[in-house]
Write a structure and sequence with these properties.
Blueprint (H helix, E strand, L loop, with lengths): L3 E7 L12 E7 L7 E10 L3 H5 L20 E8 L9 E4 L6 E5 L4 E2 L15 H14 L6 E5 L4 H12 L3 E6 L2 H9 L5 E4 L6 H11 L4 E5 L4 H7 L3 E9 L17 H10 L3 E4 L9 H13 L7 E5 L4 H9 L6 E5 L1
Parallel strand pairs: 8-9, 8-11, 9-10, 11-12, 12-13, 14-15
Antiparallel strand pairs: 1-2, 3-4, 3-6, 3-15, 4-5, 5-7
The structure holds NADP nicotinamide-adenine-dinucleotide phosphate (NAP).
NADP nicotinamide-adenine-dinucleotide phosphate binds next to α2, α3 and α6.
Length: 339
């Protein structure tokens, strides 16, 4: 067993899109677990869009990462040493390990994984993003057979879960994705009825015309993942009593292009006139539903009734580049780093 560990720290706060210089690789002596703690060797690390928000010193639903601190994140790994009841060396576990090769965490912050499932699924289809799609669609999307749903970032772990669940509930599903290949995956792999490449449309008006063609009966559920041009395109197409689960706005995470799309009065009027239900939600408030989610979805994943894609980068040192690329659509499927 090596006596050192590696971690990626936040070297400086990004301005707009993150760049490699915002991160730093640090080496430390391997920690020793205290009473009640477990030493984990991380095998898979999850990269998620929310991490961009943690790099800013801004008030949000969770505190920012301090300068010089390890980037926050969920990992899966093997227990090397346990001083906590219920865990022993060799167990496969998941928890908030951060972007690090090893982590010492209290046993109460770790969860043992079902050894019959591939460990990386705990970070994607059967983890936080999958749960987000499942909870958000049922609780806030309130889908009904025959309705039409639109979701962007449609081949990612949230969007693909939403699309597949909605299709299984009898909805017409329309994917917005970046590029021809992702559009092909959206229809052929994830079963969307139609897919539209947002990059092929320079403005919201052009994108709106394409969505309107794919949604002749209007849009009942717009699953908000990206904001920006897609939101502007969809809003006027919403049907009366439509629902908008507001899950994310990755198109605005850099912050620099918010002013360009200042459509607030028009958006607000749409919400009133169409009597729309707009529900912001953060999955941390809904972890109590995780057991029910797992019971419902894990067998469907095993039976391939729900499919998923993973994009695997190799090596902790490549996490910053993979993260930067993911924010710009460079990932195809759930972005994971294999250590
Ligand atoms: N509310 C919550 O608790 C919660 C929990 C989990 C995730 N989320 C949010 O859910 C969304 C999806 O997360 P995910 O993990 O499934 O991400 P993801 O799809 O794996 O990755 C992000 C994708 O966003 C798309 N994208 C980036 N910039 C865009 C832009 N300007 N316009 C349109 N699309 C853009 C890209 O896909 P294309 O190449 O297809 O455009 C990119 O691949 C994110 O906004 C995330 O923050 C929220």
């Amino acid at each position: 067993m090596s006596d050192t560990m590696s971690r990626i720290t936040l070297a400086r706060r990004p301005e707009g899109a993150p760049v490699p210089e915002d991160f730093k690789l640090a080496k430390d002596p391997l920690p020793t677990p205290a009473e009640g703690e477990v030493l984990v060797e991380v095998t898979h690390l999850s990269l998620d869009p929310y991490m961009r928000g943690r790099m800013d010193d801004a008030k949000s639903y969770a505190p920012p990462v301090d300068l010089g601190a390890t980037m926050t994140g969920q990992g899966v790994g093997r227990v090397l040493q346990s001083n906590a009841d219920g865990f022993e060396a060799g167990d496969t576990v998941t928890g908030m390990t951060g972007w690090a090769s090893h982590a010492c965490l209290p046993g109460s912050d770790l969860r043992k994984l079902d050894p019959s499932l591939p460990p990386s699924t705990a970070l994607g289809v059967l983890g936080m993003p999958g749960l987000t799609g499942w909870v958000g669609l049922h609780s806030f999307g309130k889908p009904k057979a025959g309705e039409t749903l639109v979701v962007a970032a449609a081949t990612g772990p949230v969007g693909s879960m939403v699309g597949q669940l909605a299709k299984q509930r009898g909805l017409r599903t329309i994917a917005i994705a970046g590029g021809a290949e992702k559009c092909r995956l959206a229809t052929e792999t994830f079963g969307f009825d139609a897919a539209i490449d947002h990059r092929a449309h320079d403005d919201a008006t052009s994108l709106r015309a394409a969505i309107a063609e794919a949604a002749p009966d209007g849009v009942d559920i717009y699953w908000e993942n990206v904001g920006g041009k897609v939101l502007e395109a969809v809003m006027p197409l919403m049907n009366v009593h439509g629902r908008i689960p507001v899950c994310g706005m990755i198109g605005w995470y850099g912050g620099s292009n918010i002013a360009e799309t200042n459509q607030l009065p028009a958006m607000w009027r749409n919400i009133l006139v169409k009597r729309l239900e707009v529900s912001g939600f953060i999955i941390f408030d809904h972890w109590d539903q995780y057991p029910a989610f797992l019971k419902d979805v894990a067998p469907k994943v095993a039976a391939q009734e729900i499919v998923h894609l993973e994009d695997v980068a190799e090596g902790l040192e490549n996490a910053p580049d993979a993260f930067i690329a993911m924010l710009e659509g460079g990932n195809t499927g759930k972005q994971i780093v294999k250590l």
